[in-house]
Design goal:
Helix content is about 45%, strand content about 20%. It is an alpha/beta fold. The protein has 2 domains: about 290 residues, Rossmann fold (3-Layer(aba) Sandwich), CATH 3.40.50; about 70 residues. The longest helix has about 45 residues.
Length: about 375
């Protein structure tokens, strides 16, 4: 089964590394569990996947200790490209590998500078790696600081503070004639989630938090308008999905938000004994993203099986041709056997994918519906059924 690649993009301080910590806190320390329609218990967690493949260049293994949030301590910002390899487990059965990429905050600026032909030699290596990973990713997580999004009213200033101008530039250039195809970014089956990080902040007005941050999500769409419009354009054209999700790596009541360097930053409350780190919506992001990717792996398997079945039928026909040489007959028989075996393997893999995605949807589907705002999905999304 193919691996799932998740790329996070956001300016410095947008919460990328803290998000990784919350993944550990939410889905590696404990199982996320619930009950399916038949009353059976379904548990999901991520296990450490070990080292990243040697074939990946410019990578450094991201150790979990580097990103963990503990009372009184936030992880240091990312200074170089780092990677985390996880394994999705459903009912303790390993399903697939999940690779996270964590880039330094300057990389998103470097990426749009690269496509706009601006000078940025210092980040050339990071720029190349990030753009290449965007091409290959199943999931793009665009990070936006919910505090800055809420408090800055002027559009130009707000876009700058949350990194929307840079994200919009990247999506604009990559989706332009000659940019999309030439960049290699015209991939299908992409999940793009806009994450409103630090949504636990006490200085975000209650009206922005009401109804699952609906008003703030609408403002996010306005700031990241090109990101949203590109995703809408490609929903049916290339099977993309999009949504806005408020998230927190900390949880309510654990931090205070203070002005810092013309922006805002979170600091832990002074009484560390009262801190209770409970991230929220991290599991929603992870499970929705991975489930989307697995459904598309299932769909690709179906298409591949149809091709193999047609080819195998032709090989079987040729393997019985009286006018063909023995060498040709044997070759066709061998190809028929190989393709039949591959079809059998893909059917078994799809059975696992169907079980996994159906059970995740049964247990967590309501949370997906209630937690992901402004959803855009293909109108002809296929239903998973059959082999």
């Amino acid at each position: 089964m193919e691996s799932v690649y998740i790329t996070m993009m956001g300016i410095s301080g947008s919460g990328k590394t803290s998000f990784l910590s919350a993944v550990h806190q939410t889905m590696m320390n404990t199982n996320i569990s619930g009950y399916d329609k038949s009353g059976g218990k379904i548990s999901v967690h991520f296990a450490s996947g070990g080292k990243v493949p040697d074939t990946e260049r410019l990578r450094s293994q991201l150790e979990l200790d580097d990103v963990l949030i503990t009372p009184g301590r936030f992880p240091a910002g990312t200074e170089s490209t780092r990677w985390l390899h996880l394994t999705l487990c459903v009912n303790n059965e390993r399903i697939c590998s999940v690779y996270f990429s964590d880039y330094k905050g300057g990389a998103i600026g470097a990426a749009d500078n690269a496509q706009l032909n601006l000078e940025d030699e210092d980040d050339e290596a990071t720029r190349g790696v990030m753009i290449e990973r965007m091409r290959q990713s199943n999931v793009l997580l665009v990070m936006a600081d919910a505090v800055n999004l809420s408090l800055y009213e002027r559009e130009f200033e707000c876009r700058s503070k949350v990194g929307a101008n840079r994200a919009n530039a990247i999506f604009s250039v990559l989706s332009s004639p000659g940019g999309f195809a030439d960049s290699g970014f015209s991939r299908e089956d992409l999940c793009v989630l806009l994450l409103l990080t630090k949504s636990d902040s006490e200085i975000i007005p209650p009206e922005d938090k009401a109804n699952n941050f609906f008003r703030l999500s609408q403002k996010a769409l306005k700031m990241f308008s090109i990101v949203e419009s590109v995703c809408a354009l490609n929903a049916d054209k290339r099977n993309w999905t999009f949504g806005v999700v408020p998230v927190s790596a900390i949880g309510e009541g654990n931090v205070v938000t203070v002005p810092f360097g013309g922006q805002y930053r979170s600091e832990f409350i002074s009484d560390l004994s009262k801190i209770n780190i409970v991230p929220y919506n991290i599991d929603v992001v992870m499970l929705f993203s991975v489930c989307w990717s697995l459904r598309d792996a299932w769909r690709k398997n179906l298409l591949r099986m149809k091709t193999l079945e047609a080819e195998a039928a032709e090989n079987a026909k040729n393997a019985k041709g009286f006018a063909l040489k023995r060498e040709t007959l044997e070759k066709n028989q061998k190809l028929f056997t190989e393709k039949t075996a591959e079809i059998g393997r893909l059917k078994k893999e799809n059975e696992k994918l169907i079980f996994c995605c159906d059970k995740i949807d049964e247990v967590f589907g309501e949370r997906f519906a209630n937690s992901i705002n402004c959803r855009i999905e293909p109108s002809s999304r296929p239903v998973m059924a059959g082999g």
